[in-house]
Amino acid sequence: MRSLKESKELIGLKITASLPSHLEGDSHSFLVTRTGAFANLPISSYPPGANRERSRTPSPQNSPRLHNESCNIAPLTPSQSPRNEIRMRQTTPFSVVVAIDFGTTSSGYAFSFASDPEAIHMMRKWEGGDPGVAHQKTPTSLLLTPDGSFHSFGYTARDYYHDLDPDEARDWLYFEKFKMKIHSTSDLTMKTELEAVNGKKVQALQVFAHALHFFKRQALQELKDQCPALPEKDAIRWVITVPAIWKQPAKQFMREAAYLAGLVPSENPEQLLIALEPEAASIYCRKLRLNQLIDLSYKPQANGLMSDLSIDSSFRQAREQLRRSRHSRTFLVESGMGELWSEMQTGDRYIVADCGGGTVDLTVHQIEQPQGSLKELYKASGGPYGAVGVDLAFEKLLCQIFGEDFIATFKAKRPAAWVDLTIAFEARKRTAAPHRANSLNISLPFSFIDFYRKHRGQNVETALKRSSVNLVKWSSQGMLRMSSEAMNELFQPTISQIITHIGDLMKKPEVKGIKFLFLVGGFAESSMLQHAVQSAFSAVCRVIIPQDVGLTILKGAVLFGLDPTIVRVRRSPLTYGVGVLNKFVEGKHPREKLLVKEGKNWCTDIFEKFVSVDQSVALGEVVQRSYCPARVGQRKIIINIYCCGTDDVVYITDPGVRKCGTISLDLDELEEPSSPKKSRREIRASMQFGDTEIKVAAMDVQTSKTVRASIDFLSN
After folding, report:
1. What are the C-alpha distances in Å from 7 to residues 17, 34, 78, 677, 680?
2. Is 274:212 a contact under the CB 8 Å cutoff?
């Protein structure tokens, strides 16, 4: 083994030489040879799923020094300041882009041909559906047979499940609003399970793959009808939307589900893009004309006073225009910038608030003229404040009236009837308005009324009279009569969280001088939310809503697929780095971090940053590090990645720091035995943080050959 004295030009060491034997092994021993900075490499794509083999690295216990032995690596030169050297993504020619907007409550797809990028084609009108609801999206509802096979998706799944005999329905697997599970699960893995309405569990990856495969079949059939000569393989670039606040494991999960669904092969990862939902909305809003926007900040005068009803009338006007456009499934977008964008100057800032079914996603962009590219000014923020919060408030109200134990039993014993009840509430929720005076009637399924009578020995009307809820009455037609005050109370907790979050964001120094606030997403169709946002922020900035507010993200995702370079600069949501060894400095480093090797004192567990939280990272900008195998013939290098929500982290054992992923470098066997002079085999890894996913590529410096590299956030 080369001693430190013999390699004094390279400050590095093989950890396995001095660690206990139980920490030694081929998959854990490697040597750092050089620490680079932001550097420029010819990169085409660094997919997280390029290598489907999982590298499961054991986590040592107890000793802080041995917290992660495979990351105790030494930088051979001090880290330099990042240099903004950029190599833009090489775009592969695709004939068509198909985008799937995978939402919490509803989903859909759209596509555009590369030869005619100004035309965005929406999906066919879905079968089934509810009166008064646009059919350009379908509910995110999946139905599997009792043996776990795919049966149907969307309206078809919902209606079929609703029509099943109650006893038979208990054996079928029905999933709805399951996207939220991916956001809320802190330890997401490939084996994470989802619970169907009947309580049975299925692997989440299978559930998502079934849904994506459904959209693949639908899109391919329509493309085949429109363009019979279009080859299926390699002709389509697929785009899947996810919330911007999703962490790397959730994004990788969607990619793995797409591989399992057969959208693209794992060896051709650049054929699939992950689009961030508020980014997609921002990209589409760039194209809009003034007559395609509703300015909620404009309030016409009424008898010298500002009219509070303008928001409702504006929304009704937008609904009418949207209704007229439903006969056409092709939307034409501007070849250049829309009229609103042409008014904006370089440096103008705006917020996109994507208010969906499950989450609210906020992003802050700055326009860059004349090319119209976008720059993110503050890391994506938000939380689980979507329209589902109103549904949960309604369920809580039912528990208050009928008893929490009864509602739980009813959901378990009559799952199809519970779905029927939620559908009835959804229809009335859409008609809620801030100035509505009359009550709203919500139909209770007969099975609910009958089940309550048998279970409690009294009727529903008696339960309402005995409850402490005064704003909900019983109708002789078998309905709950909710006063407008009661409906408003269901909305208020969720809306208040949204208003608070937008307000907190606007107070950030980076977000000063906002010119526009774009309200998009399915929940943005609610006049309750529109009125609240308009009241809170119209004095600060112009509050704008696209007419087709529920389809804004879907259309923007298509445009993103046509030009993935449109967002030029993003912000890192977290601080990422690795654990390294540095020279031990008395008085600076704690004694418990001291590691003595061959007469040299080293400080272990130093957190060396790749990128800091909220740091601007340009598209194509890479972090470059070089590594050497610890011994000749080593075939695999495992590098553990750590993350933290703050920038002041010093050690990988600090509070808030956690291991979040691994980089795997698979090494080919050298054709010729290395001479002593060439015994240090250098592998140069390049990581990209400026895209929607963290990506990695690697090269063998000696042979200039590509090394198979993968980054995994799901095996922790």
Report:
1. 16, 13, 17, 12, 11
2. no
Is residue 312 predicted with pLDDT exceeding 70? no
Q: What is the pLDDT of residues 466-515, one digit of tens each?
A: 888 888 888 877 788 888 899 999 999 999 999 999 999 999 988 888 98
Class of domain 570-710: mainly beta
Contacts for 601 with CB less than 8 Å, ≥ 6 apart: 583, 584, 594, 595
Residue bearing tokens 């000569």? 229
CA distance 124 to 687: 40
CA atoms within a 13 Å half-sphere pointing along the CA-CB vector of 556: 30
Mean pLDDT of 549-562: 92
Pairing of strands 360-368, 542-546: unpaired
Q: Which residues contact 57 (CB under 8 A, 6 or more apart)?
A: 27, 28, 68, 70, 638, 640, 662, 715
- In angstroms, the CA 389 to CA 386 distance is 6
Residues 625 and 35 sit within 8 Å (Cβ to Cβ): yes
Q: What is the mean pLDDT of residues 694-705?
A: 89
How many other β-carbons are positioned within 10 Å of the β-carbon of residue 124?
A: 14
Residue 30 parent element (H or E): strand 30-39
Q: Identify which of 663, 709, 711, 692 has the alpha carbon closest to the alpha carbon of residue 41.
A: 709
pLDDT band at 129 (very low <50, low <70, confident <90, very high): low
Sequence-distant (6+) residues with CB within 8 A of 304 are none
Q: How far apart are the first and last CA of the chain?
A: 32
Q: Is the peptide bond before 370 cis (omega within 30 degrees of 0)?
A: yes
When the pLDDT of each residue in the chain is averaged and rounded to a whole number, the result is 79
DSSP, residue by residue, 572-597: -SSEEEEEEEEE--TTTS-GGGEEEE
**Segment 633-674, tens digit of pLDDT:** 788 888 899 999 999 999 999 999 999 999 999 888 766 554
Average pLDDT over residues 212-217: 96
Q: Are strands 567-571 and 373-383 parallel, antiparallel or unpaired?
A: parallel
Q: Determine the average pLDDT of the residues in 250-270.
A: 94
CA distance linking residue 124 with residue 137, whole number of Å: 9
**Is residue 87 over pLDDT 50?**
no
- Each residue's pLDDT tens digit, 517-538: 999 998 999 999 999 999 999 8
Record the tokens describing residue 471, joined without a space.
């704003």
Strand-pairing partners, residue 543, are 517
Taking every pair of Cα atoms in the chain, the longest distance, rounded to a whole number of angstroms, is: 92
Q: Where are the beta strands (DSSP E) in 270-397?
A: 272-276, 293-295, 301-302, 305-306, 330-332, 349-355, 360-368, 373-383
Return the residue matching tokens 């200039």: 704
Q: Which two tokens stand for residue 520?
A: 């998009």
Map tokens 């939380």 to a residue: 383
Chain region(s) in the chain for CATH 2.60.34.10: 570-710
What is the Cα–Cα distance from 297 to 314, expressed in whole angstroms? 11
Does the pTM exceed 0.70?
A: yes
Close Cβ partners of 671 (under 8 Å, ≥ 6 residues apart): none
Per-residue DSSP letters for 99-121? EEE--SSEEEEEEEETTSTTEEE
Between 226 and 194, name the one with better pLDDT.
194
The two tokens of residue 252 are: 């990788």
